[in-house]
Specification:
Structural class: mainly alpha
Shape: flat
Radius of gyration: 12 Å
Helix content: over 70%
Order of helices and strands: HHHH
Amino acid sequence: MMTNREIDLLPQGDRAVTQASHDYYRALLVGVPTGERQRLRRAWLHEMQRRWPDTSVGSLAEATQPC
């Protein structure tokens, strides 16, 4: 997992989606409450959709369901 310092060094276009991904997966690892984890997941899916608009959020959501 990248650190916040490493994320800050990324090109502007990659920074937001990488930060959202980092926040969501860190929440999964740490075990944050469900409401906060769902908020971070929505933010991550939003950034994925913004970065790669041809990808449907539905397919992303199905592919990323926690086991």
